[in-house]
């Protein structure tokens, strides 16, 4: 049984006249009658009562008609769904992002615009450190990632394109001698203890902290590690040390915390979009087009 058999049957059932049904289908009446006979033979029961002046559905035909219409509707929807997927308008897109990204407009604006433009695409969002995102993209767990790779090496097979840079801020306790200054140099903090990400979590910030401090003439003294940026800010509020974080996190306001601009050259943290090389994906193409409009 093929879909054309169902289309022929439904048309005859609607017209209850083989001549008119054949005209609608743009085929001859004898071939149409033969196709209906073949269908009845395959099913094993008559679907129509036929006479010279009258064609009517049998009880079996009436029951078969509802199912035939449903199958044809499902087949049309399946075809349209496949076409939408081919155009990047349907399916599921898996997106990774670093923990500081929700505090930026780039992620929010991209996701909002994409959802408005492609409402039939499901978005799976995964918060991951940059190194985790690289691995997930290589293994197909993610389609695209918003990463801050800093000093991390980009693995072979991954393309990372910079889409922005956020200034870095020194996060200090309100009682710190430099807390009321608008802009500072890192060299003034050579005696501070720093709160940082553990080196094994896959964040590029520990490498950036080390690079900037060494450029300022000292090696940073790490007194505490924390896996979450907001945890680091809380530890600064508790007086445990100084942290280096991207400027968008300034929106996290605690009474005893101050954010200081850094005048040192290179005191910024790059934001990049990471994808797997040589992996064409219509969904991803639409997402990257929206990102280009949002981030430039």
From TrEMBL:
Claim: Transcription regulation is one of the keywords in the record: yes
SUPFAM superfamilies: Periplasmic binding protein-like II, Winged helix' DNA-binding domain
Matches recorded under Pfam families: HTH_1 (PF00126), LysR_substrate (PF03466)
Keyword list, A-Z: DNA-binding, Transcription, Transcription regulation
UniProt keyword Plastid present: no
Chain ranges of the HTH lysR-type domain: 1-58
PROSITE patterns tied to this protein: HTH_LYSR
Domain of life: Bacteria
Similarity comment: family membership: Belongs to the LysR transcriptional regulatory family.
Protein name, entry field: LysR family transcriptional regulator
Species this chain originates from: Aromatoleum buckelii
């Amino acid at each position: 049984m093929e879909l054309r058999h169902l289309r022929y049957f439904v048309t005859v059932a609607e017209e209850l006249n083989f001549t008119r049904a054949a005209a609608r289908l743009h085929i001859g009446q004898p071939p149409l009658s033969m196709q209906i006979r073949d269908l009845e033979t395959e099913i094993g029961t008559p679907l129509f009562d036929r006479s010279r002046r009258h064609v009517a559905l049998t009880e079996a035909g009436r029951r078969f008609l509802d199912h035939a219409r449903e199958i044809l509707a499902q087949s049309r929807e399946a075809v349209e769904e496949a076409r939408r997927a081919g155009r990047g308008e349907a399916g599921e897109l898996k997106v990774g992002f670093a923990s500081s990204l929700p505090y930026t407009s780039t992620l929010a604006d991209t996701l909002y615009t994409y959802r408005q433009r492609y409402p039939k695409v499901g978005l799976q969002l995964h918060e991951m450190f940059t190194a985790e995102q690289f691995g997930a993209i290589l293994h197909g767990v993610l389609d695209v990632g918003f990463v801050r790779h800093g000093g991390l090496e980009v693995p072979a097979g991954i393309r990372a394109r910079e889409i922005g840079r956020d200034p870095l801020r020194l996060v200090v306790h309100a009682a710190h001698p430099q807390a009321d200054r608008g802009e500072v140099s890192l060299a003034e903090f050579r005696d501070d203890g720093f709160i940082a990400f553990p080196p094994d979590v896959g964040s590029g910030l520990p490498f950036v902290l080390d690079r900037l401090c060494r450029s300022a003439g000292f090696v940073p003294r790490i007194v505490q590690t924390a896996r979450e940026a907001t945890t680091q800010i809380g530890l600064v509020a508790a007086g445990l040390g100084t942290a280096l974080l991207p400027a968008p996190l300034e929106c996290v306001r605690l009474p005893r915390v101050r954010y200081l601009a850094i005048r040192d050259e290179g005191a910024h943290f790059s934001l990049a979009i990471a994808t797997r090389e040589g992996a064409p994906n219509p969904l991803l193409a639409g997402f990257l087009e929206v990102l280009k409009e949002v981030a430039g």
